[in-house]
Amino acid sequence: MSKKELHARQAEAAKRWVTTPHKRDTTVTNTTSATNNTITFKNPKAAQFLVDGKTIPEVNFDVGPSYSGLLPISGAANETRKLFFWFFPPGPQGSADDLIFWTNGGPGCSSLEGFLQENGPISWSLGQAAPTENQFSWTNLSSVLWVEQPVGTGFSQGKPNITNEDELAAQLVGFMAQWLEVFPEMKSKKLYLTGESYAGTYIPYIANFIYTNPTALDLNLTGMWISDPSLSWNVVQEEIPAVDFVHKYENVFSFNQTFMAELDAIADRCNYSGYFDKFVTYPPTGLLPLPGNSTFAARGCDVWDTIFNAAVTINPAFNIYRIFDTFPILWDVLGFPGSFPQAQTPLYFNRTDVKTAIHAPLDVNWEECSNVDVFLRNDDTSLPPALSVLPSVIEKNERTVIVHGLADFILIAEGTRIVIQNMTWGGLQGFQTPIANDSFIVDGVGALGTTHTERGLTYFEVELSGHMVPQFSPKAAFQIMQYLMGFRANP
């Protein structure tokens, strides 16, 4: 095959990825069709946050008007704590009836990563020489609000003082209330809370706070997305499934037989071997046990770290967020392309011209993941959400989606399956029927993983994707959001 023919076939295949206009499926309960996608912001206070879409540094295309800057977490006159946001009204195809909120995790990682490398209208991902338009931007669905939170993250201002997720939720909702006073046209919109990684802990607690404080925020919480989420104990989401994960991807890890035998011996000794086949049944036969005596890993049973140390010996570019990466490490405009930081000077959001364009504080040394402890003493004292607030939130949402990239090693999909099968919501424990293989059909692509829906919860697994699903599988992520928002009747 000649290069010319190869490129022609690739170009023809890429046409199947083009997004098409959509409207909300009227067969879905409690949804309405948008009548227009134009929102005019008349509050004079909004003008100070306006960003000219033609003059964003390095971006050689017009992304349209947006709004960014700092707003306080309360209306107190002496409030010093402020969160940084970037808000985009809906694009030409987007609905004016909805608002998507996005946060990254960490704790302490900036949501500007999500904006620039996952689901925003500008895409400047790993290895890209310059930014490009993102045809899978979630602004093609509705308005989107990216927020750097909690206090201590990114450009946010003030001293962190929280110790748990309830306090985090109260501060975020306080910020949202202040934001709605600047953008009152967004009041009463349908709200979709979305985030990834440690935001799998943030988002359920934020949702629970909104449901238990119904007058705190003039928005109608409707649904929730959490991808590659932190939901339970470390031993469940990392340790138990780690050796099985290596066996699944033996050709990627490339460990020798002696080391594989050592891993199997540890798994046997620590009661990880056979755990999935024995306990992850449909329906479950009872609560799933924790192996050993620790919610992290019993002494001598930290097999995840053992695997990681061996993996980076073989492949210095081994990336816990997407295991397919190899050396050399791709350049990243945000300076953090995977397991290892790659320093550039300056990072994109540390450039003075960028800070000026988006009304960010010039004196802040922006980092993708902050070195500041966003929880006092770096200790979040809240229980994992699957053991506390998540079940009741699922019951209150119209739809909840949990999404997991199958090439993610920092949080492993089989661990998320364990979490779901150990969780009770809607009067039953776990999914009652098995998750079918090849059940997630992506338009123009075909089977790209699995999906399963019961009692208001839909679970997705996405093949070829790492930890950041909207980055590594943007078309699949876009389709999942269409489903969450009622633009599709079926996943």
Automatic annotation (TrEMBL):
InterPro entries referenced in this protein's UniProt entry, alphabetically: AB_hydrolase_fold, Peptidase_S10, Ser_caboxypep_ser_AS
The keyword Glycoprotein is annotated on this UniProt entry: yes
GO molecular function: serine-type carboxypeptidase activity
Keyword annotations from UniProtKB, A to Z: Carboxypeptidase, Glycoprotein, Hydrolase, Protease
Gene3D superfamilies referenced in this protein's UniProt entry, alphabetically: alpha/beta hydrolase
EC number: 3.4.16.-
Enzyme's top EC category: hydrolase
UniProt protein name: Carboxypeptidase
Biological classification of the source: Eukaryota, Fungi, Dikarya, Basidiomycota, Agaricomycotina
